[in-house]
Design brief:
- InterPro entries: Cell_div_FtsQ/DivIB_C, FtsQ, FtsQ_C_sf, POTRA, POTRA_FtsQ_type.
- Essential cell division protein. May link together the upstream cell division proteins, which are predominantly cytoplasmic, with the downstream cell division proteins, which are predominantly periplasmic. May control correct divisome assembly.
- Part of a complex composed of FtsB, FtsL and FtsQ.
- It is found in: Cell inner membrane; Membrane.
- By secondary structure, the protein is an alpha/beta fold.
- The strands form two sheets. The chain has a nine-stranded mixed sheet with strand order 6-5-4-7-8-9-10-11-12, covered by helices on one side.
- A hairpin with a 5-residue loop joins β8 and β9.
- α5 packs parallel to α6.
- The radius of gyration is 37 Å and the shape is elongated.
- It starts with a helix and ends in an 8-residue tail after the last strand.
């Protein structure tokens, strides 16, 4: 095939090309390339902490035990990210790891702030000496803080914490109606109950019928209070009757 024939052949093939379609495809590829480049640049910009830094964190909610310094320390590493790349779930988890924080919710607030709502633990009792119980009967560990009111001492297996708190509230209500205060309540490994009143009297309640036994103590206490010695301990683990231990006495009376 001569050179002229080759040129004629290519001109015929080019003439047969749908240039409208080709130009459309070329324009589409150009648009896709432009969008891809813009998306890549936008991704880099949104992840750039220097270009879009988190300017501030707004903390809402009543706080008694969690300081600004503790919050700042918990979020220090997370604040190095940009406003858009910061993971609000990680921020929430970091705050909820603070000992006195019960729950945290976090959301972004345009243009460059995070808004945080904190709910602190509400302690209602000491638990097993070095822990706390919150209002839901959940055990948590946290350092002691000034300003916490005098709280009762509760004890027992952690799995029974909610039951102990419920029983404490029931017994306290019954005692308060009759002029007594409840200082502590414990449940041992054998599920036997022991209570200590504000006046120092210890009540052995056993495993069953603890409310009925509390009522038996209330009924008999006026007689016990008239005795010359002070009541130290009352054992109510009897189907009927009780045993009394007196201050400065070597023997119990029944």
């Amino acid at each position: 095939m001569s050179w002229k024939d080759k040129m004629r052949h290519w001109r015929q093939r080019l003439a047969a090309v749908d240039w409208y379609l080709v130009s459309g495809l070329a324009f589409l590829l150009l648009v896709i390339s432009a969008f891809s480049l813009s998306a890549l640049r936008l991704h880099d910009l949104l992840g750039d902490a220097e270009a879009l830094p988190i300017e501030s964190v707004i903390i809402k909610g009543d706080r008694q035990y969690t300081s600004d310094a503790e919050i700042q320390a918990a979020l220090q590493s997370l604040m190095r990210r940009s406003f858009f790349s910061a993971d609000v779930n990680q921020v929430q988890e970091a705050l909820e790891e603070l000992p006195w924080v019960y729950q945290a919710s976090v959301r972004r607030k345009w243009p460059a702030r995070l808004k945080v709502f904190l709910q602190e633990q509400q302690p209602v009792a000491h638990w097993n000496g070095d822990k706390w119980l919150n209002e839901h009967g959940q055990v948590f560990e946290a350092p002691d803080k000034e300003g916490i009111d005098q709280l009762p001492q509760l004890a027992g297996p952690d799995a029974m914490a909610k039951d102990v708190l419920t029983s404490y509230r029931q017994i306290r209500e019954l005692l308060q109606i009759n002029g007594f205060g409840l200082k502590s309540l414990s449940l041992n490994a054998r599920h036997a109950w022991r209570a200590v009143l504000d006046n120092g009297v210890m009540l052995e309640l056993g495993r069953e019928d603890k409310m009925a036994r509390i009522q038996r103590f209330i009924n008999v206490y006026p007689v016990l209070a008239k005795q010359p010695n002070k009541v130290a301990r009352v054992d109510l683990r009897y189907d009927t009757g009780l045993a009394v231990g007196w201050d400065d006495a070597q023997q119990e009376s029944r």
